[in-house]
Backbone:
């Protein structure tokens, strides 16, 4: 290494590394390879249009001349030198290698041990670098907005908060829950005591166990097993004076909740595919090739218990807010013997547990009808055989009714055959309309007390003469052929009640003489009209979900008839053969599909296809078991069918036609097609114009 001095104006020092020739003479293959590559790189040139465009080296060369201009170095370290002259920096921290810039320091014998390729005779230059601490750089700061009560400024902060809350124009705030995450609060006493564990063992012989069980009281219980005539015996042991564990568990609300959740989980393992089908999670593909309309019923599961075997299903109601919940009433059907009228049940089932009901209500008389409230979905109205009406809250786990009807003010002792919740604006009150066998129409209002407030609306009278409607020809028969009317009662039986879908204060009542009375809640003890629709009792009357002026009726004269308001004759008549129609309902998803039930089976009708016979008829259970109830689910893809043995079958509708996009237009075209053979009636229907919502 050699050194030279620059001009006096620009003092500099030049350091020369080993030349390329020296590197080529080295014994190291690595160094020789690098030297050869550098020489080849220097010989390459890139001429473009006669101009040398060879790019320069991006990094300083490893071999060659490296110059360090000390004027720039001194300008950068001038403040440090000034501080040194002012003796602000300790003398021990001064770099002694730069005390004299004019004289080159002597580094003879110094070898850079980090570079083994250097020869022993070559000198290296060392520069001392002084590292000092820089100022703190704040990347993120989140100041606290909470002051401890022990702090000095706690009193001042509390006074500011009090002034803010009591200022005149302060915003109205309320301490309530919001859709924000809970703030993680940390108290001072977060440490808990250490839990000590200990293993304890004991030895018990067979003689000890024998003597222990002989000293305990033995209790044996028999439990009926569903779908089996055998009984299961369970033996429990208890010590004298010790509380029965079964009674304690029955009083525990947490135990019942845990048991219900566990039963749901177990039932989900067995009925998983059926529950998926009930929820309609995999709807049928309208583009598949093998589409056939068979109107088939597939039984998913059956609701049944040991206590309700032999008790006919009298009524059923799906919860309007939760389509998984259904209330089923078990009471009487037809001419039930007096021995079987001892008690009744109302069970609230959930599709998540098709084995055991989640609510059980027992009554001392048969139950005739149930209905959920649309305004308050957790309220369930129950009609009894002895004329009473009760309202239950299914969210309450106790057996106490929310309100019952009182017989002190207006007693009713005849069976309640049907009831409906009033839905029109009545100042936010929950009211129920109930019809009884003696012809009384009662309105019950839910009050704060434990009794329902009764109010009589109307008592039906038998129709005298020839009323307007089906069968009234206007001509009188000969005197010798006229039937002799012997009326044992002046008041007909009210079998069903329906509230108008648009005019909520207007309701229709079907009687046992085949007539329909329509009345208004605002006009008590008055009739708005009477129409003779059947020759036997009317069991059901329901409006179409797609038209507020089209409704159907089913009766014991073996027929289902579809009517239009303001027309005294039916536009369509569906005959089931030689069996009374117990119930009939419109499909909530297809405007032309109707489901009905007779003693022998379930019929599915499609007005687009034919009206002479049903599209399909399915028999459920044994041939000797009569079917009593049919109801569509809220989604319209399943049916609930009840029988006289206390079983409720949940069936899926398979191979059904796809719902049309324009429901009312499809219903209108189907009805017009049925009236082709009655041109006069068809003309009258067309003149009525649009009948939909």
Residues:
């Amino acid at each position: 290494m050699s050194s030279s001095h620059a001009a006096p104006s620009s003092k500099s020092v030049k350091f020369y590394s080993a030349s390329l020739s020296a590197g080529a003479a080295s014994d190291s293959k690595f160094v020789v390879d690098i030297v050869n590559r550098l020489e080849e790189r220097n010989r390459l040139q890139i001429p473009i249009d006669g101009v040398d465009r060879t790019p320069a080296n991006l990094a300083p060369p490893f071999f060659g001349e490296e110059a360090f201009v000390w004027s720039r170095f001194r300008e950068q370290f001038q403040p440090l030198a000034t501080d040194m002259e002012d003796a602000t920096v300790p003398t021990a921290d001064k770099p002694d290698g730069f005390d004299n810039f004019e004289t080159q320091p002597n580094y003879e014998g110094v070898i850079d041990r980090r570079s083994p390729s250097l020869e022993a005779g070559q000198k290296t230059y060392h520069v001392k670098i002084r590292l000092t601490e820089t100022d703190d750089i704040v990347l993120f700061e989140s100041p606290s907005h909470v002051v401890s009560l022990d702090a000095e400024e706690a009193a001042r902060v509390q006074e500011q908060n009090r002034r803010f809350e009591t200022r005149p124009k302060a915003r109205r705030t309320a301490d309530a829950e919001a859709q924000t995450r809970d703030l993680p609060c940390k108290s001072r006493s977060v440490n808990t005591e250490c839990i000590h564990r200990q293993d304890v063992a004991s030895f018990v012989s067979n003689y000890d166990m024998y003597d222990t069980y002989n000293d305990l009281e033995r209790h044996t219980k028999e439990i009926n097993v569903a779908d089996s005539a055998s009984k299961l015996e369970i033996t429990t042991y208890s010590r004298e004076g010790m509380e029965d564990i079964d009674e304690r568990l029955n009083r525990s609300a947490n135990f019942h909740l845990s048991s219900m959740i566990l039963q749901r989980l177990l039932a989900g393992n067995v009925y998983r595919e059926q529950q998926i089908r009930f929820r309609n999670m995999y709807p049928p593909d309208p583009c598949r090739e093998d589409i056939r309309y068979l109107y088939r019923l597939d039984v998913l599961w059956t609701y049944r218990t040991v206590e309700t075997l032999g008790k006919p299903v009298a009524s059923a109601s799906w919860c309007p807010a939760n389509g998984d919940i259904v209330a089923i009433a078990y009471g009487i059907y037809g001419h039930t013997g007096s021995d079987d009228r001892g008690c009744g049940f109302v069970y609230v089932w959930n599709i998540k547990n098709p084995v055991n009901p989640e609510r059980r209500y027992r009554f001392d008389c048969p139950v005739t009808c149930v209905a959920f409230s649309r305004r308050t979905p957790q309220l369930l109205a129950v009609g009894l055989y002895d004329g009473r009406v009760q309202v239950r809250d299914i969210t309450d786990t106790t057996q106490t009714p929310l309100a019952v009807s009182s017989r002190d003010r207006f007693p009713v002792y005849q069976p309640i055959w049907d009831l409906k919740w009033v839905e029109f604006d009545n100042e936010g009150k929950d009211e129920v309309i109930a019809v009884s066998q003696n012809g009384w129409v009662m309105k019950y209002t839910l009050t704060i007390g434990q009794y329902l407030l009764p109010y009589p609306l109307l008592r039906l009278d038998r129709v005298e003469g020839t009323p307007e409607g089906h069968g009234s020809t206007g001509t009188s028969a000969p005197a010798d052929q006229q039937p002799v009317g012997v009326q044992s009662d002046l008041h007909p039986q009210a079998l069903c009640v329906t509230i108008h879908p648009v005019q909520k204060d207007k309701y229709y009542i079907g009687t046992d003489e085949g007539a329909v009375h329509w009345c208004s809640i605002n006009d008590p003890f008055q009739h708005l009209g009477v129409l003779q629709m059947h020759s036997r009792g009317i069991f059901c009357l329901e409006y179409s979900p797609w038209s507020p002026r089209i409704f159907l009726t089913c009766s014991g004269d073996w027929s289902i008839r579809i009517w239009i308001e303001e027309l005294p004759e039916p536009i369509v008549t569906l005959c089931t053969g030689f069996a009374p129609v117990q119930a009939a309902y419109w499909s909530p998803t297809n405007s032309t599909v109707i489901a009905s039930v007779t003693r022998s089976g379930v019929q599915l009708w499609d007005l687009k296809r034919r009206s002479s016979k049903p599209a399909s008829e399915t028999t459920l259970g044994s041939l000797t078991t009569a079917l009593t109830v049919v109801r569509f689910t809220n989604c319209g893809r399943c049916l609930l069918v009840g029988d006289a043995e206390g079983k409720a079958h949940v069936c899926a509708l398979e191979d059904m036609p796809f719902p049309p996009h324009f429901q009312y237009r499809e219903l209108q075209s189907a009805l017009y097609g049925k009236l082709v053979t009655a041109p006069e009636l068809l003309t009258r229907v067309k003149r009525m114009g649009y009948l939909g919502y």
User: Anything to note?
Assistant: Residues 1-19, 62-74, 79-101, 472-484 have pLDDT under 50 and may be disordered. The first strand starts at residue 12 and ends at 16. Residues 149 and 158 are 9 Å apart (CA to CA). The radius of gyration is 48 Å.
